[in-house]
Amino acid sequence: MILVEAPGLFTTVQDLGRLGFGAMGVSPSGTADAVALRVGNRLVGNPEGAAALEMTLAGGTFVFPKGALAALAGSDFGATMDEAEASTWRPFRIPPDGRLRVGHTRSGARCYLCVRGGIEVKPFLGSASTHVLSGLGGFEGRSLKKGDILSIGSSKMTEPRPQGAVSDVLLPRKTLRVTDAPQADWFSEAAQSIFCNSGYRVTEEANRMGLRLEGPVIPAPAGGQMITEGVPLGAVQIPAGGQPIILFVEQQTTGGYPKIANVISADMSSVGQLRPRDEIRFERVDQATARALLREQEEAIRAIH
After folding, report:
1. Which pTM does this prediction carry?
2. Which of 3, 11, 79, 199 could form a disulfide with 102 if both were Cys (CB 3.0 to 4.6 A apart)?
3. Beta carbons within 10 angstroms of residue 152's beta carbon
4. Contact at 8 Å (CB) between 262 and 243?
């Protein structure tokens, strides 16, 4: 088991999400950085989609009465295990009654605590992920609190992988590659040029539902309004004010703003590591390039051993 001595700023149980329920109005939720979760689970010998703890900007303190094998993945939060440094991207043993302290971010937005066996919670629609806005899934449908006790599962496991570094292909980037969205041809050449040649800053209004950006105004066609339709993960909407919004893992499943682009699958984990005030840019690529980049990322994950 894991005793939550201090929960951190915003810590939830997450796996790879619940796909296939968009038609019912249920967004996938799940991990904000799927690459980090998958790599962390591989390091401790779990299935890639095993549930773990996702910590945002500031981590917590966790006590393991019976010990565990664990790994931290994602951003460096300056963690210590019984006062000794606990490195990211490397599995480590936690002794009985060991205390893991995860500090504040040194880079990126999120750090993942993966434990051998995974976090065991009752699944909702086939997933352990926490959908905070609706209070569904995870541990009681909420972020963790002091005094919570989590169970470690016993899912099918393999030998741990003592990785010490990961490929640059798997690390977050600040230039997000995008493909054309359904309304891309609604935008003028001037609007497209502003979008692709400008820097944008992540605002304080950034969460698991979406990231609002600020920067040069992109003229929005049709007054920033359209008939509501289904929207995909990573869609870049342009509302009437001309400031982009990137839809994220707890997004609404329909929307009525024109979409100029869509973040490619290989870069969605980078979106999950963006912090308020981070500066980003967009780079347009074609569908073939997007698929090639995703294949390269998948090969790098499978190469971890």
Report:
1. 0.94
2. 79
3. 18
4. no
Instruction: Return the CATH architecture of domain 170-302.
Output: Beta Barrel (2.40)
**How crowded is the C-beta side of 123, counted as CA atoms within 13 Å?**
12
16-53: pLDDT as tens digits? 999 888 888 888 899 999 999 999 999 999 999 999 99
Over residues 251-255, mean pLDDT = 90
The tokens describing 163, both together, are 């990785």
**Residue written as token pair 């991207």:** 89
CA distance to 7, 156, 253, 273, 294, per residue, from 304 (Å): 30, 18, 34, 21, 16
Residue extent(s) of CATH 2.40.100.10 domains in the chain? 170-302
Q: Give the pLDDT confidence of 72-83 residue by residue, as tens digits.
A: 999 999 999 998
Residues of the chain with CATH 2.60.120: 2-166
d(CA 178, CA 72): 29
